[in-house]
Amino acid sequence: MNSKGATVKRGILSILATVSAITLITACSSGGGSTPVAAGKVTLEFSQWWEPELPAGALRSVMDDFQAANPNITVKLLSAPYASTKDQTIAAAASGTMSDVVGLDGAWVSDFAKQGSVADLSKLMKSAKYDESQLASQIKVGGSTYMIPVVNFVYPMFTNDDLLAKAGISQAPTTRTEFTAAAEALSKLGGNTKGWVLPLSLQAPNGIQNDVMSWAWASGGSMLKGGKPDLTNSAVTSATKYVKELWDKGVVSPGALTMTEQDKVEEFTNGRVGMMIDSLSHITTIREKNPNLKFSISAIPATDGFAGKRGIPYASWGIGISDNSKHKAEAWKLVQYLMSQKVNSKLSTLAHAFPGNTKSEPDFTGTDPLFKTAFDIYKSGAPVNEFTGLPVADQLMRDFDEQFQGVLTGTQSVNDALKKAQAAWKTQF
Amino acid sequence: MSIKIINADVSRGASTKSLGRRLAPYGFISPTAALLFVLMFIPIAMVVGYSVMDNVIVNKHPQFIGFDSYIKVLTNSVLPTAVMNTAVFTVVSVIAHLVLGLLFAMMLNTKLLSNVTTGLFRVIYILPWLFTVAIIAILWKLLLNPNGVINYALISLGLTDKGIEWLSSPATALIAVTFINIWAGYPFYMVSLLAGLQGIPKDLYEAAKVDGASGFQQFWSITLPQLKPIIISMSMLDVIWTSQQFALIWMTTGGGPINVTEMLSTFTYKLAFSNYQFSQASASAVMILVLSTILAFFYARYQKARD
After folding, report:
1. pLDDT category, B21, cuts 50, 70, 90?
2. In 3D, which of A80, A127, A120, A136 has the Cα closest to residue A320?
3. Are residues A70 and A131 in the same domain?
4. What are A316's strand-pairing partners?
């Protein structure tokens, strides 16, 4: 009896084990990207890094409004910080499980478009008879739109008012000569104070875009010629030599070669540097972390005597649609909703960013006065980000960064570094 | 006739029972086998497959290109640097883990300290092991910052006149990340060796003392030989783990400055997620897999020989 009982028990256990194994395999092999459809209802997956950067519940509230207007569509938000979203989106693009609607950075678009993982929005706009003229910009690859910037964050120059005053500087520098003089004066204040902060970490090499190339763009320069790399031109050479000059004068905060954007903001927030070029989106963080810090923002200094329109770097929260999505029409409805005048104004107000719809206006009521200043800088300048839409943009920045670090550590000249970076970039185009 | 039927039933029943009994073990191992199949066999097979195709993932219709990706990886100018850095990082880390782990284990095993003191130090020494890699990276980035605590202490003691850029200087970055890895990994050795030390029969030491052996002679002739199996096993595992270290390097230096802390892991990651060269990244991963498998083979063979 006991033996029989034990046999039965063993049999049941082994069946359970087998069933669990089969369940495991089935669970693992089921697709991750497809969206369930139930009785005419459509569920859209929307992956992005925006929700963690917006006030709690803000993006969900926008989605709830969209769902109320479109009762047959439900939006499921897949939110993660920027870096995680990037890795997950690349992996999802690779495995064909990208969310229906996907938050995009301009630096990823070219590769996703070539891979065929993001849908051609030009076709969707055409079939929906959408008026493209209301879009401030579109990111195109091969003549077709693959990403629409929903909101834009500009990168002006931040200056610590108290430190500048202490160094005897009454107003923020507007030219490179004034910037050098201010940075030197700030660095002479003693302690750990430095004039400028330059993040060049190879982990996230966007310092090349925001803190190095911005000097060329601010003076009307370009790193491209006919859409191809042109790093050895006079504008890029002049900007690179200028940054090297600042480095040699000892006005740059130490630790630059492994410093990330977050470290840069920390340095400024803690009052250890007088000036930095940074995203407007960090104003709130700086205010929260150091309420006593008095700071201003202004346009990035240009070369002496430059009278043209100043380029000002920007980054976008872009949006695209997965080419694998079974609900492209519904996905486009969501994109169209986010780009509509009213919603885009609301989103740009919430994000403290500038709208992607030309007719939208952010509401500055009750917000930090610096946002209004930044909007004026944005309108008077020319938003520029030449890395947007380039192939392997992240790697291009890293290639430049590695060569530039060689310049700063004294192992090669600026001209040699630019030639090598140019050669490396050419292979990517 | 009826007897025959009964016999047939009995025989069928016995046969069913025997079949069930024979299949039961397979049923029990099936969850593990399924897990291994899904999480090990399929991904490895896919990566090996990717490595011989023309840029997979990015290219929707990849073609078979043989070993082209392997040749590209082997001729990449950064590879020798990555191999050398990985070798230095791994060898120094494993040796330091062993020496520190053994030292601290012997300190915790001593009879000279009270149980309370030993318990307290046991907690302190094991702390690095309790932190995740992300915490360790942030902690040491703050400590080693040019304006951080360590530089403050060095300047206060007059050992340097300005903050040293430990992680940002090409001269010190590799040393700094190796040091952080040593700090993070020695407790694993310490705990294992402490267990080993506590298992050494006391009569061996008593006999040695009777024979007039000095402390060093006891250590050399009793402690080390008794711990040898643990030391060899752990060193092999540590070589495999350390040579694959990615998160710590990525979060502290990103492989920089320039490429002085570039490891095989960061090199492979950049090929995949920065260059989108998934075939080359797969080729690099397969080569690392082969090297790890060789080490694992020796580890398994050693374990089998011990048993």
Report:
1. confident
2. A120
3. yes
4. A152
Mutation target vs B (from A12, A14, A109; most B CBs, 10 A cutoff):
A14
**Same domain as A329, residue A277:** no
Domain that holds residue A202: 157-298+392-428
CA–CA separation, B175 and B96 (whole Å): 12
- Contact of A94 with chain B, judged by CB distance below 8 Å, is answered with yes
The answer on pLDDT for A31 being more than 50 is no
Contact B34 A192 (CB under 8 A): no
- The reported pLDDT for the residue numbered B1 is 44
* C-alpha torsion sign, points A384, A386, A392, A394: negative
Domain boundaries, chain B: 79-261
If contacts are CB pairs under 8 Å, which of residues 225-254 in chain A contact chain B?
253-254
| A60 contact B CB<8A | no
Q: What's the mean pLDDT in A223-246?
A: 96
DSSP structural state of residue A255: T
How many beta carbons lie within 10 A of that of residue B14, not counting itself? 10
Which residues in chain A are closer than 8 Å to B169, comparing Cβ atoms?
Answer: 257
Q: Does residue B169 sit at the A interface (CB-CB below 8 Å)?
A: yes
A423 touches chain B (CB under 8 A): no
Q: Residue A380 is inside which H or E element, if any?
A: helix A369-380
Average pLDDT over residues A13-25: 56
Q: Would A337 be classed as within a structural domain?
A: yes
Q: Is residue A410 located within the same domain as residue A281?
A: yes
Phi, psi of A400 (to 5 degrees): -65, -45
Residues 307-366 of A with CB under 8 A from B: none
Is A12 part of a structural domain of the chain? no
Distance in Å, alpha carbon of B151 to nearest chain A alpha carbon: 12
Shortest alpha-carbon distance between residue B147 and chain A (Å): 7
In a domain, A26, yes or no: no
Beta bridge partners of A47: A78, A102
Residues A241 and A360 in one domain: no
Q: Is B31 within 8 Å of A111 when comparing Cβ atoms?
A: no
Q: What is the pLDDT of residues A108-164, one digit of tens each?
A: 898 899 888 999 999 999 999 999 999 988 998 888 999 999 999 889 999 999 999
For the domain that residue A234 is a member of, what is the CATH number? 3.40.190.10
Nearest-neighbour CA in chain B from A138: distance (Å): 23
Is residue B235 a contact partner of residue B86, using CB atoms and an 8 Å limit? no
Percent of chain B whose pLDDT exceeds 70: 94
pLDDT (0 to 100) of residue A114: 84
* Cis check: omega of the bond before A313, within 30 degrees of 0: no
Domain count of the fold of chain A: 2
Residues A163 and A144 in one domain: no
Q: Which residues of A fall within a CB distance of 8 Å from B39? A: 28
Pick the CATH number of B79-261 from 3.40.190.10, 3.40.120.10, 2.40.50.140, 1.10.3720.10: 1.10.3720.10
Whether B51 and B279 have beta carbons less than 8 Å apart is answered as yes
A398 within a domain of the structure (yes/no): yes
Q: Which residue has the tokens 């030292």?
A: B103
Burial class (CB in 10 A: 0-12, 13-18, 19+), A200: buried
Q: Does B283 touch chain A (CB under 8 A)?
A: no
Complex ipTM tops 0.95: no
Residues A175 and A294 in one domain: yes
Residue B148 in contact with partner chain A when CB distance is under 8 A: no
Regarding whether A323 and A176 lie in a shared domain, the answer is no
Q: Are residues A289 and A167 in the same domain?
A: yes
The Cα–Cα gap between B166 and A89 comes to 34
Taking an 8 Å cut-off on Cβ atoms, the answer to whether B24 and A257 are in contact is no
Cα separations in angstroms, B202 against A306, B218, B226:
84, 12, 12
